[in-house]
Amino acid sequence: MKLLQRLVYLIILSICTLSLQAQTDVFGNKIPAKKKNYAPVPDHYNKTDENGLKQGPWEKRYTDGSPLYKATFKDNKPVGEYVRFYPNGKMSLRIVYDEKGVNGEAELFNDKGELSSTGTFVGKNKEGKWTYYTSKNVIASTQEYKNNKAHGETIVYYPNGEVAESYVSVNGLKDGPWLKFFRSGASLLKATYVQDKLEGKYLYYYEGGQLEIDATYKNDKEDGNWTFYHQNGEVNYILKYKDGKLLNPEVLNERRAAEQEQFEKNKGKLKDPEKMQNDPGAYFR
Q1: Where is this region: Disordered (predicted)?
Q2: Annotation: CATH topology of 45-271
């Protein structure tokens, strides 16, 4: 009997040992991973003076004990390095403030630890030129700010560094030239914003430089004649607008009907995938 009890004990002990190694209990339930131990916040951290102002080093933490932010304060303003973290431990923000706690040079990161933007804070407001990056640390765009509002030029870049788009803002509203470009650098679009509304000429181009659309906006609505050109410079068709309303819809309907007719004529010339399924090489003959 004692031998049997001993044998049962050894079997249970073996199962428990294997279960612990596999991070599961004897019933197959997953054992929670042991939380990392963090040193306690030092006693001289997180102090305020008699006026309730933050002074000296501060550190706030998530409920699991990992750091949320670390900073040093002087009269309630961060001075020197201010760092924030994501719950996964990756840095989300790093700002180095001046001794007055006013101007700070900032770096922002995504939750993978990759740089997402750089720029200057004045207090909590974005100021001056900010640069934004793709996940591959390539500049995606730059934007100018004043009192935390877009103010100045914004430039968007292709991955190869060529300018894709630019526009001007005043106090958070687009106001001025709006330009778009092909990757080659040739003009794609020329238009103008006034107080965040399209106003005046709206010119769209083929990559070779020939005008494709010659249009006009008035108070952010289509207005006047919109002329569409073929790539050889000949007029394709003209649409007439007033305050955003199309006055000659029959032209657009005729255009669509012509495109449909052309499609029907070409349909018989297209290779039918069902007929080719037994002879894939036919696609290339």
Answers
A1: 258-285
A2: Outer Surface Protein A; domain 3 (3.90.930)
pTM for this one? 0.75
Both structure tokens of 233? 């410079």
Contact by Cβ (8 Å): 107, 131: no
Which amino acid is it at 260?
Q
> Looking at residues 209-215, what average pLDDT do you find?
96
**87-103 tens-digit pLDDT:** 999 999 999 999 999 99
> For residues 233 and 231, what is the distance between their CA atoms, to the nearest angstrom?
5
Provide the residue ranges of all domains of the chain, joining segments of one domain with +. Answer: 45-271
Q: State the burial class of residue 119 (Cβ atoms within 10 Å of its Cβ: 0-12, 13-18, 19+).
A: buried
Average pLDDT over all residues of the chain: 86
| pLDDT value for 73 | 95
pLDDT at 21: 47
Cβ–Cβ under 8 Å, residues 58 and 67: no
d(CA 132, CA 106): 12
